[in-house]
């Protein structure tokens, strides 16, 4: 895939005054997933390059790769299957798939097919999503109980049950996977969550693991981990049985401009999300004033990101 998009000259300027370089963020969003000639290799990434990243991670010795699904050129099943088909050892995980975007049969079929095709290497990462992301798509953010029920439906389908369900996860009079191989292990299911009270209780009750988002301080991460462990103890579950992964944004061997374009701008996308940014500020104990200033920046207001 090629695109004729060119790099914004302003993105090549040393970053210093504009918070997160909104002009660069706008350019990244416009060209996401497309390869184009540019000064920096991280400016645009093709699907094939992303798959090769997973293969390289296997060669280096990483245990698992996560793919955060997007509704463009990052459909999780396609990309993760391509990585798994090209490797023998590394685990592959969706991090995350939002449940409103997947009918339970679709999600169950993905998990069963990945395990049957590539062995016990797949982790199905799920999440509730964000109301802002569903705007105009005809989707609704599930309740925590609906999410628990959704995971229970998947596990019952993988065990070969015929499921009849009517509740917060939807109405499904008759669900069944037609070809269930009892010798194939069901995939573990992880929860992408901020780990607050309701989320922690849901993780402890229904999930095998937790994927925490980036932009958390070490103290905030420690607080969330303690909350998750406490939620396990409250229901008699061994806290050690709940796997917890903290994702971290890194910029190894990148110069200042590329670091700001590909890493700082990513943090801006989290902070700029209504509701999400406020929660990150609160959880990390940050001063809310810089967040307000970021959203009032002229570039954001002009481009409609604020």
Structure description:
By secondary structure, this protein is α/β, with parallel strands linked by helices. Helix content is 42%, strand content 13%. It is built from eleven helices and nine strands. The strands form two sheets. Strands 1, 2, 3, 4, 7, 8 and 9 form a seven-stranded parallel sheet that branches. A two-stranded antiparallel ribbon has the order 5-6. Helix 3 (76-85) runs parallel beside helix 4 (104-118) and helix 6 crosses helix 7. The radius of gyration is 20 Å and the shape is globular. The model is unreliable at 1-36 (pLDDT under 50).
Question: What keyword list fits this structure?
Answer:
two-stranded antiparallel ribbon; alpha/beta; 306 residues; seven-stranded parallel β-sheet; 9 strands; disordered N terminus
How are the SSEs ordered, and which strands pair?
Elements: H1 22-31, H2 47-60, E1 64-67, H3 76-85, E2 91-94, E3 97-98, H4 104-118, E4 122-127, H5 144-158, E5 163-167, E6 170-175, E7 189-192, H6 197-206, E8 209-212, H7 218-234, E9 243-246, H8 256-272, H9 276-284, H10 289-295, H11 298-303
Parallel strand pairs: 1-2, 2-4, 3-4, 4-7, 7-8, 8-9
Antiparallel strand pairs: 5-6
